[in-house]
Design goal:
40% of the residues lie in helices and 11% in strands. The chain is of the alpha+beta class and 358 residues long. It folds into two domains: 109 residues, Phosphorylase Kinase, domain 1, CATH 3.30.200; 220 residues, Aminoglycoside 3'-phosphotransferase, Chain: A, domain 2, CATH 3.90.1200.10. The strands form three sheets. Strands 1-2-3-5-4 form a five-stranded antiparallel β-sheet. A two-stranded antiparallel ribbon has the order 6-9. The longest helix is centred in the C-terminal third of the chain and has 23 residues. It is globular and about 65 Å long. It starts with a helix and ends with a helix.
Length: 358
């Protein structure tokens, strides 16, 4: 493999202070459940993500990934390692882009937390920008974009009942639960310096589609949760981070994805918040993404405004929950200091879409 491509492969960094793994109890468990491991591992940690802690354990003969819940108080239903493990284990035979699961542990004496281990997918993760050593032509960028959307469409077409995943979520009534749930979460996290958003919440409540479709949804489908082939970076070899996957509406999933989709003609503030390379020449615009999805699935979408507003409002809710923690000194991460400005921006985009649809 050319060095220029190899250097683009995603890698872990040093383990953060206070987040070391206790190898004296972990290693015996690993050796019992994965007998072919050789020697003691070199442990590194991935810095991306704000939820579960993810580590790379490099043994003499192979690398594996370990995911565990963070320390501290956890919201009900959050950081469910068993659910995440069994979902991927059931999904793997019908959706090959899921990493292979190697084992799950619920014995708190091993790690003081539930955790699971899986195969390591060696590839490129397209974060805010592609690695400098990876250059794609406009044609290859377009192919990457199509391949990413095809991966989402393929997921939405999985027969979840045949895969044994019918108990993954409540299913029917998903849209109403999402609107009600995110409205409540936003109100509970509101601080004095952000809008009430009552007009947006009322509009979403009044404009819920009469018909919903239930399928397997990822709910965090972004380029930085994809793994690209190091040899041919336009090809996808893995989809990561299944913590939020459930039985939901596919168009809500698409709306969630588009909330993060920053295109070249978006304004300055949008560009500052971009976290995936959707600005590259060859990427589809948000409207082209919607058109592509319609053409490939045959779903009669009609007006997509509701789903776009929902995705942006949900993202505003996520940002406000994070800012609430900073505002009340529950975290001192300076990166969160100006999230309230981003909340204003997202809600303004919601209002613009609503006015345009009127």
């Amino acid at each position: 493999m050319p060095d220029s491509v190899q250097r683009g492969v995603d890698s872990a960094g040093e383990v953060r202070p206070g987040e070391m793994l206790p190898l004296d109890t972990l290693l015996p468990w690993l050796q019992e459940h994965i007998p072919d491991l050789e020697g003691a591992p070199h442990v590194r940690q991935y810095s991306g993500g704000a939820s579960n802690w993810t580590y790379c354990l490099s043994f003499a003969n192979r690398n594996i990934i370990l995911r565990r819940a963070p320390e501290g108080t956890k919201a009900k239903g959050a950081h469910d390692m068993q659910r995440e493990y069994h979902l991927q284990q059931a999904l793997k035979p019908v959706y090959p882009l899921v990493p292979a699961m190697l084992g799950v542990c619920t014995d708190k004496q091993v790690l003081n937390s539930d955790f699971y281990v899986m195969e390591k997918l060696t590839g490129i993760i397209p974060r805010k920008n592609l690695p400098r050593s990876v250059t794609l032509s406009t044609q290859h960028v377009r192919q990457l974009c199509h391949n990413a959307l095809d991966a989402l469409i393929d997921l939405h077409q999985v027969d979840y009942q045949q895969a044994g995943l019918q108990s993954l979520g409540k299913g029917t009534g998903y849209i109403e639960r999402q609107i009600s749930g995110w409205s409540t979460r936003y109100r509970n996290a509101k601080t004095w310096n952000v809008p009430s958003a009552n007009n947006i919440m009322h509009w979403l409540q009044d404009n819920m589609p009469a018909h919903e479709r239930i399928c397997l949804t990822h709910n965090d489908f972004r380029f930085d949760n994809l793994v690209l082939d190091p040899q041919q970076p336009e090809n996808i070899i893995g989809v990561l981070d299944w913590e939020l996957a459930t039985l939901g509406d596919p168009l809500m999933d698409l709306g969630n994805m588009l909330a993060y989709w920053v295109q070249p003609d978006d304004d300055w503030l949008a560009q500052q918040t971009r976290r995936q390379p959707t600005h590259l020449e060859g990427m589809l615009t948000r409207q082209q993404v919607i058109d592509y999805y319609i053409a490939k699935t045959g779903i009669p979408i009609g007006d997509f405004t509701f789903y776009q507003v929902y995705g942006l409002f949900r993202l505003a809710g996520i940002a406000q929950q994070i800012y609430y923690r900073y505002h009340h000194k529950q975290t001192r991460n300076p990166a969160f200091k100006h999230y309230w400005i981003f909340v204003h921006y997202l809600l303004r985009r919601c209002t613009r879409l609503i006015k345009h649809a009127s």
